[in-house]
């Protein structure tokens, strides 16, 4: 397929409620959408990086610059035979995988639309319904957190993830476990701790958590291995697993027992599928993480979640938890049994609300 045009858009979107993690508070998003066009058909991707390098090294202005001046021109230089080539073509850039994923995932959407097949089938997905959990930020009070958990459970969600950070950890999790004795519960620290905290955090072992996500440094697989030795609760890695090779190394080192795969953290489908395959080979379950995506990124996360080894409920949930109005039509909805029914239309399977996208766009660049 010859790519005729790549359009970059930056949109501003406010979140319905602020989302707080150990690295900061998000009240609105600067969203980069990538549109890749060939013969009048468009594929779409989203770059869910933050305005500052807080989750990983990436940030919005760097992504925009890299897409406009480095990545999009490289992709336009020579024809791309298939979407599976795009990842390798963009690999000349070190890191910045979420930025690359904007283009890579758009190319997969485009290819599936040209073939008139749903993207999830095109990548070999094996289920038509995916299990959903929710990720809940740090709250001002335990009461506030309890109220939100009650609402999410009433909506059908199958597991609750709460964010923890120093000052909001063992006691907060204990209070939630006492109030919800049988709920599937887990905690995500986003690298807020070091091995010095391991003994204190081991108190979490009494609270029957499904897993503790990324307690230690983003780049420290060895410390996680040491912590996992002392901890009964499974460690799940998020930030530390950027490539399939990292997944292999973490598994070899016994640094985790579960992996959160984020499609964009991996740089797109090619690497995310490799990660999934590595984990499956080692009988390690995975689930799909989120980055507060709009409907575009969310639709891609749904497609990825249909692969066989995504056996645990992910952080992929309904549009209305994040935005008053989403960029896609219909919005992503969750059934009362806490699942998303995977769409049957070609590509990502949802229509784009182009008028609304235009209305929210604050900058746009066409690269040819
Ligand atoms: O660590 O999983 C994370 C959001 C932004 C950055 C990192 C993370 C998250 C979430 C939210 O947990 C997941 C979602 O609801 O999209
Ligand atoms: Mg996480």
Compose a concise summary of this entry.
This protein has 368 residues and is α/β, with parallel strands linked by helices. Helix content is 33%, strand content 21%. It folds into two domains: 5-116 and 354-367, Enolase-like, N-terminal domain (Enolase-like, domain 1, 2-Layer Sandwich); 121-341, TIM Barrel (Alpha-Beta Barrel).
Q: Can you offer a commentary on this structure?
A:
There is one protein chain. With 368 residues, the chain is an alpha/beta fold. Helix content is 33%, strand content 21%. It has a 7-stranded parallel sheet with strand order 5-6-7-8-9-10-11. The protein has a 4-stranded antiparallel sheet with strand order 3-2-1-15, sandwiched between helices. Helix 6 links the parallel strand 6 and strand 7. The longest helix is centred in the first third of the chain and has 19 residues. The site of magnesium ion has 7 residues, from loops.
Strand percentage lies at 15-25%
Give the mean pLDDT: 98
How would you classify the quaternary structure? single chain
Bound molecule types: 2-succinylbenzoate, magnesium ion
Structural class: alpha/beta
Question: Could you name the CATH class of the largest domain?
Answer: Alpha Beta
* Main sheet attributes: strand count, strand direction, barrel closure: 7 strands, parallel
| Number of E-state strands | 15
| Assigned CATH architecture of the largest domain | Alpha-Beta Barrel
Task: Let me know the CATH homologous superfamily of the largest domain.
Answer: Enolase-like C-terminal domain
Strand order of the largest sheet: 5-6-7-8-9-10-11
Order of helices and strands: EEEHHHHEEHEHEHEHEHEHEHEEEHE
Outline type:
globular
